[in-house]
Amino acid sequence: MRAPFLSTFTAFETFVEELFVGLLVSNAGLYSETADVVPRFTIRSHIVARDLVIGAGRQYVDWLPYERTEERANVFFRGGRPFTLLRDPTMANVLAVLGRGTIVRNAIAHKSRYSLHRFELNVIRGTALPPRERTPAGFLRGVGAGAPVETRYETYATGILTVARSLAS
Q1: How far is CA 94 from its chain centroid?
Q2: What is the pLDDT of residues 19-36, one digit of tens each?
Q3: Contacting residues for 69 by C-beta, under 8 A, at least 6 apart
Q4: What is the helix, strand, coil percentage profile of the chain, to 5?
């Protein structure tokens, strides 16, 4: 369960980066159906846009927690759009799932005392779970409350897909 979950988050972060850079580059073939998606400056090259977004001396950008994407979007796009539009109240649950999913991802990827503490504090705290579901991987294999019945992994994957669809429209 760990590898598919990490792959899901990696694919999402790649999607966000490609969309972000693509929307910055003028005449790149990417556009947003959302009104008022306007870069603050004109960039004609994907290489230059990627270098500006990533920053000097860095190899990658942290897109999660999602607040980092919104902060970066506010620098590069007027009003941060489309990346800040997820703050709409109708997306609150989806952003919460993405936030908790990021914590689970970090607990799996890093296995540090800090990331496991955050998992316990922000994800499973106060939830009655059997011992096998009190680890990040076990938690993902468990079935969440609600209908239809789905694993927590499926819930997180669906939330990520919802965010991606919202950003791409």
Answers
A1: 10
A2: 999 999 988 767 777 778
A3: 16, 20, 63, 83
A4: 65, 5, 30
pLDDT (tens digit, 9 = 90+) per residue, 118-154?
A: 999 999 998 899 999 999 999 999 998 776 889 999 9
Model confidence, pTM: 0.90
Q: Which two three-digit tokens encode residue 122?
A: 């922000």
Q: From residue 106, how far is each of 70, 81, 93, 111, 113 by CA, in Å?
A: 19, 27, 20, 7, 11
Tell which residue, 37, 36, 69, has the closest CA to residue 53.
Answer: 69
First to last CA, the chain: 30
Handedness of CA 15, 18, 23, 28 (dihedral sign): negative
Residue 58: the pLDDT is 86
3-state secondary structure of 95: helix
What's the CA gap between 125 and 113, in Å, rounded? 16
Phi, psi of 21 (to 5 degrees): -65, -45
